[in-house]
Design goal:
60% helix; alpha+beta; 26 helices; globular
Length: 608
């Protein structure tokens, strides 16, 4: 849990800084942490640069390949519309450009289905519809889309600079009210999405931001430090890797792919590391120079380049068993310091396998899920993730086919059924549990430990978790003073959850927000999958945060499936049943704003 990293806790403990800054240091750590649930993660957001880039890639692919059907590019235009409408800052900064782009994207989806011939209306032939789409898309790609991308990428006034400048301004002063808190939260979420989309490692970035905030002399300096860390340029790194299964390589052939081969005398900074891991005649040490923002990103970029070399070697030597070790030694060229990266996590103390009803139905899903989590390449992770998601749909898992419209451009029509509702079901509970865990971890390591223990006594805790989430919500609602002294992040988060879970209408809005983010994320996954399969991995726009969001959606789906799966019921049926139950809850919450909520039954009618 990144929120209890020493640097993050030090920033949160700075009582001379205002609450907004201290909250932001912890919230950014939560957003950037790859282990954060989807409902609270920065990976769940799609920034405008990513949305526009993905649509342009789909448009260029369609225009360059006359044989491709236009359904994919129309769906991509819906994705672009939905993603841009979620980022409210665009209307303030680029009102004309974004309005024009959304207008043309909407017109693109109005493909003529019938035409008038004389006094009769006849169906428009497919080739005429294709020509119509190609003409509209070509004009859009060279017109409104090009102008919008030029505007958001303009140095100084582009989206990245404006977002970071605005965040710095917000962090200079404490939020005055709920509106200012909401605006700060919004900008933090999109800043995290933007920086993750650039390839930065979330853990490294969160620690760097928190360390600068903790060391800043005052609030203005701390706000400026956040801006400086986010705006820092990439640096030069050298990465030492080990390729097992090859005693040596021809240096010339490897260097053509950007990978160096260390000879008998490796650089002094890597000599001891190489000698301990690359046995003579069994493995070859490699050296890759990259530009990156942090050592972990440098390792990942070097791994992808070394994987390309391995792919060529496998084609030339199919009988060989070649494998790249995940651990690397990374040299910061400017600082002259080297550190290990990619070491394996601590082993499990004791593993266990849960028993599920109809477990055989889950085997394809579990296999694809495991393959996705073990991959380095974001594009390959996306492919495995999509296979896992399809295993949960009727199309992938067998059974009777689901009736779907021939062409529907709503997001729900181009992803496995029920996923958005499933993510909302799991997300509501995850927000409560993850927020409790983060607040508890911070409070127990602070000088407010005794106050927190009194709160736990009121709530009733077993094994570090509330015995009853409903009891937790009731305590937060009725006695908000209990959390006020715990620090900005625990106090703000728990009090906010208490308010949201107080009324059905508020909780319905939270669930709907999670559903929208899920729809956009899975729509991006489908587009990335399409481009990876048909145009290659490099054209897929499959970024690391997109692949991570896919894995987090899998977590949501599996959590719901294993609660609803029963004998004779397949995964698709379980998800459909869960969705019906969730939508009935939403309808009840919306119609009865003062409805008493039961937080213990957010996943299933029976208490989890």
């Amino acid at each position: 849990m990144l929120v209890i990293d020493p640097a993050v806790r030090a920033a949160h403990a700075r009582q001379d800084l205002h609450a907004g800054l201290r909250y932001a240091a912890v919230r950014l750590a939560e957003l950037l942490d790859p282990d954060t649930p989807f409902a609270l993660s920065g990976c769940a957001y799609c920034d405008p640069l990513a949305a526009a880039g993905a649509f342009e890639s789909a448009a260029r692919d369609y225009l360059a390949n006359p044989g491709v059907r236009f359904g994919t590019v129309l769906a991509a235009s819906q994705l672009l519309t939905d993603a841009l409408e979620q980022e409210g800052n665009l209307r303030a900064w680029y009102a004309g450009d974004v309005t024009r782009l959304l207008l043309f994207a909407g017109r693109l989806r109005q493909v003529p289905a019938v035409k008038t011939v004389g006094e009769r209306q006849v169906k428009v032939p497919y080739h005429e519809r294709t020509t119509w789409v190609r003409q509209k898309l070509g004009a859009m790609a060279g017109g409104s889309l090009a102008r919008f991308r030029a505007a958001i990428e303009e140095p100084g006034t582009g989206y990245r600079d404006r977002l970071l400048d605005q965040l710095e301004v917000r962090l200079r002063c404490a939020p005055a009210g709920e509106r200012e808190w909401a605006e700060l939260e919004h900008d933090l979420c999109y800043t995290a999405a933007l920086l993750l989309g650039e390839g930065r490692d979330g853990r490294e970035l969160a620690r760097a931001v928190a360390a600068r905030v903790a060391a800043a002399p005052d609030a203005c300096a701390a706000a400026g430090a956040v801006r400086e860390v986010a705006a820092a340029p990439a640096a030069a790194y050298e990465v030492a890797l080990v390729l097992h299964g090859a005693g040596s390589l021809e240096p010339e052939s490897a260097s053509a792919l950007g990978v160096g081969v260390m000879d008998a005398a490796p650089p002094r900074w890597a000599a001891a590391w190489v000698s301990a891991r690359a046995a003579a005649g069994e493995a070859t040490p490699l050296l890759v120079a990259v530009q990156a923002w942090d050592p972990e990103q440098a390792r990942m970029r070097a791994m992808l380049m070394a994987q390309a070399l391995r792919d060529h070697l496998v084609a030339e030597h199919p009988e060989a068993r070649l494998a790249l070790a995940s651990e690397a030694l990374v040299l910061d060229v400017a600082a002259g310091t080297a550190r290990r990266s990619g070491t394996a996590p601590r082993p499990l103390r004791r593993g266990r396998v849960a028993r599920y009803e109809s477990a055989a139905e889950l085997v394809p899903f579990l296999r694809a899920n495991a393959l996705a989590r073990g991959e380095v390449s974001p594009a390959v992770r996306v492919l495995h993730t999509w296979i896992a998601l399809e295993c949960l749909s009727r199309d992938g898992g067998g059974g009777d086919p689901v009736e779907r419209p021939a062409l529907s451009l709503k997001l729900e029509s181009y992803l496995p059924p029920h996923l958005a509702s499933v993510a909302a079901i799991a997300g509501l509970r995850a927000m409560l549990v993850a927020s409790w865990d983060a607040a508890r971890a911070l409070a127990l390591r602070s000088d407010r430990r005794e106050e927190w223990l009194r709160l736990e006594a009121r709530v009733g805790v077993a094994g570090g978790r509330p015995r009853s989430l409903a009891r937790l919500v009731a305590v937060l609602r009725d006695q908000p003073a209990l959390v006020e002294g715990l620090g900005p992040f625990p106090a703000r988060r728990l009090a906010d959850l208490g308010r949201r879970f107080e009324k059905g209408s508020r909780l319905a809005k939270v669930a709907e927000a999670v559903q929208v983010r899920t729809l956009i994320a899975v729509a991006r996954l489908k587009l990335a999958r399409h481009l990876a399969v048909h145009r290659g991995f490099d054209a897929a726009h499959a970024t690391a945060p997109l692949a991570q969001s896919a894995v987090l959606v899998l977590d949501c789906a599996f959590e719901v499936v294993r609660r609803w799966l029963r004998p004779g019921c397949g995964p698709a049926d379980a998800l459909a049943e869960a969705r019906r139950w969730h939508e009935a809850n939403l309808a009840a919450w919306r119609s009865s704003p003062e409805l008493e909520l039961d937080a213990d039954h957010l996943l299933h009618p029976r208490k989890q």
